[in-house]
């Protein structure tokens, strides 16, 4: 899961791109990058680490231009390292940079096509580089010295014909403008907005609407599944549906965990969705355990706080902040290895003992994936003097791998896989455990936008909407991306890997 942003402005965009990446930092902490374009010259800075660590004042001074894109990376497919930081570049045709959020499910097949048929070279094992080269090849096939909006849209149509999986993409073409597109199911989020200035209209494309709010842009709408956007050098906006078949089936895990609560995704308020999740979970708890004996409800910061508040109100039980969070430790779910995740839990949270001592405590989390965090936190509650520790998950049990850009590749790593709720509760050390029902989770999201008839819920129900994922695929994915491989390939953070480069393009518009 990554964060992307693109701005076609009427003045310098470097600082606004940086601000946007800090607003999207929750979506990826592995690497960050910015590219700007000015007069056919592309300027890039990218490196491993948080945005605040990658970019320096000297970098920003060299990132000149009124058009640019940015990316924060969260590694899922392929290895990790400086070469995988985005945006990614290809020089032919024209000079193209893209930033990609998602994961291609047919990347291996496409790599063979790119080498044998498109006659292109891939320098990394990143599926984002695959997508970039597919787009570049399809655009080159239009055979134009100066591409028009119709050429851009034809290239995106070619991407939809060849690429399967999830992708939300922003890109810039030297001299010719900014583009963006979304996969034909709209699995990964992407919205756009505008801002009126004395020099004309500016446009921005982002993963989450909260960025538009922060930068002073008015949200227009989400890009539709299969739709593409292009802002030409004159600043004119072009939109076109590029997929022959398309259906909005967005990822429901955005509402569970990834997105900020102050964002709107596909016209659904993440905040209100999480409120409804808490209310429905409280109703289930009341049905199953009317004599629950809960003295206090404590959220596990931060994503579960909204659901925990609604749950406590519905139960008529006190809500207390029992854990204080160290803001300088990253999100443990997206830590690259199991050992690092486990170590970070106690570095990240500290219990307020007065809220636990002698009480029956209900801990509320947004979800339980590997169980590492839950086990550690339950033990922290017991160490703080809790009488009994109950656990509630605002999402159903995560029982299946994710193939669309969330780091859940191996079924063996998922604590709920092939286990009952009671077995999971025993493993994490809870006195009892309650999960949200999938139907209630879907209803919580659907209530915000009744036009959405289906959500991408594969981690809960094992149904993969793209239709190309079977057990053979999952077995191969498991062998490629298990924890031992990932921990062995994740490099240490090296600030010196940040770099600024200028890429010149002599073509003229």
Per-chain topology:
Elements: E1 3-8, H1 14-23, E2 31-38, E3 41-48, H2 51-54, H3 57-62, E4 67-73, E5 88-90, E6 96-104, H4 107-116, H5 127-140, H6 149-162, E7 165-173, E8 177-182, E9 191-197, E10 200-206, H7 209-215, E11 218-222, E12 227-231, E13 237-241, H8 253-258, E14 264-265, E15 268-269, H9 270-288, E16 296-299, H10 305-315, E17 318-319, E18 323-325, H11 338-348, E19 349-351, E20 360-365, H12 372-383, E21 388-393, H13 421-428, E22 432-435, H14 438-446, H15 458-461, H16 471-480, H17 483-489, E23 499-504
Parallel strand pairs: 16-17, 16-20, 20-21, 21-22
Antiparallel strand pairs: 1-4, 1-10, 2-3, 2-4, 3-23, 5-6, 6-7, 7-8, 8-12, 9-10, 9-11, 12-13, 14-15, 18-19
Features:
509 residues; Glutamine Phosphoribosylpyrophosphate, subunit 1, domain 1; six-stranded antiparallel sheet; globular; disordered C terminus; Rossmann fold; alpha+beta; 17 helices; eight-stranded antiparallel sheet; 2 domains
Describe this structure in words.
The protein is of the alpha+beta class and 509 residues long. It has two domains: 3-249 and 493-499, Aminohydrolase, N-terminal nucleophile (Ntn) domain (Glutamine Phosphoribosylpyrophosphate, subunit 1, domain 1), CATH 3.60.20; 272-443, Rossmann fold. Helix content is 32%, strand content 24%. It contains 17 helices and 23 strands. An eight-stranded antiparallel sheet has the order 11-9-10-1-4-2-3-23. Strands 5-6-7-8-12-13 form a six-stranded antiparallel sheet. A hairpin with a 2-residue loop joins strand 14 (264-265) and strand 15. Mean pLDDT is 91; it is low at 488-499 and 504-509.
């Amino acid at each position: 899961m990554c964060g992307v942003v693109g701005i076609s402005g009427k003045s310098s965009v470097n600082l606004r791109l940086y601000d946007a990446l800090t607003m999207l930092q929750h979506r990826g902490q592995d690497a960050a990058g910015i590219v700007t374009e000015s007069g056919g010259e592309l300027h890039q800075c990218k490196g491993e680490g948080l945005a605040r660590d990658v970019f320096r004042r000297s970098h920003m001074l060299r990132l000149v231009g009124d058009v640019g894109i940015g990316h924060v990376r969260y590694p899922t497919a392929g290895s990790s390292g400086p070469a995988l930081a985005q945006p990614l570049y290809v020089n032919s045709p024209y000079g193209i940079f893209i930033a990609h959020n998602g994961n291609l499910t047919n990347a291996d097949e496409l790599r063979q096509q790119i080498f044998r048929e498109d006659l292109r070279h891939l320098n990394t094992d990143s599926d984002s580089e695959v997508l970039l080269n597919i787009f570049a090849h399809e655009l080159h096939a239009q055979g134009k010295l100066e591409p028009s909006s119709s050429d851009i849209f034809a290239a995106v149509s070619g991407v939809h014909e060849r690429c399967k999986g999830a992708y939300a993409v922003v890109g810039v073409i030297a001299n010719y403008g900014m583009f963006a597109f979304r996969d034909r199911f709209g699995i990964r989020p992407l919205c756009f907005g505008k801002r009126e200035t004395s020099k004309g209209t500016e446009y921005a494309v982002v993963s989450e609407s909260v960025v538009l709010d922060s930068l002073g842009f008015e949200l227009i709408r989400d890009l539709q599944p299969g739709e593409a956007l292009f802002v030409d050098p004159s600043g004119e906006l072009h939109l076109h549906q590029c997929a022959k078949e398309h259906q909005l089936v967005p990822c429901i895990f955005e509402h569970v965990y990834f997105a900020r609560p102050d964002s709107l995704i596909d016209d659904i308020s993440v905040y209100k969705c999480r409120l409804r999740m808490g209310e429905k979970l409280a109703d289930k708890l009341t049905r199953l355990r009317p004599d629950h004996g809960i003295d206090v409800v404590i959220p596990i910061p931060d994503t579960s706080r909204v659901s925990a508040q609604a749950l406590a109100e519905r139960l008529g039980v006190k809500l207390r902040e029992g854990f204080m969070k160290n803001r300088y430790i990253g999100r443990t779910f997206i830590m690259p290895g199991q050992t690092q995740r486990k170590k970070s839990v106690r570095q990240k949270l500290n219990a307020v003992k007065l809220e636990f001592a002698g009480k029956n405590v209900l801990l509320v989390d947004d979800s339980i994936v590997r169980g590492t965090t839950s086990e550690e936190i339950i033990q922290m509650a017991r160490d703080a003097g809790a009488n009994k520790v109950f656990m509630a998950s605002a999402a159903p049990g995560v029982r299946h791998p994710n193939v669309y850009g969330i780091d859940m590749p191996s079924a063996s790593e998922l604590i709920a896989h092939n286990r009952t709720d009671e077995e999971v509760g025993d493993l994490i050390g809870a006195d009892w455990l309650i999960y949200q029902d999938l139907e209630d989770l879907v209803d919580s999201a659907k209530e915000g936008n009744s036009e959405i008839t289906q959500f991408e819920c594969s981690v809960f129900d094992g149904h993969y909407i793209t239709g190309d994922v079977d057990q053979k695929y999952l077995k191969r994915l498991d062998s490629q991306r298990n924890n031992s491989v990932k921990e062995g390939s994740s490099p240490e953070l090296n600030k010196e890997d940040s770099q600024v480069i200028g890429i010149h393009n002599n073509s003229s518009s």
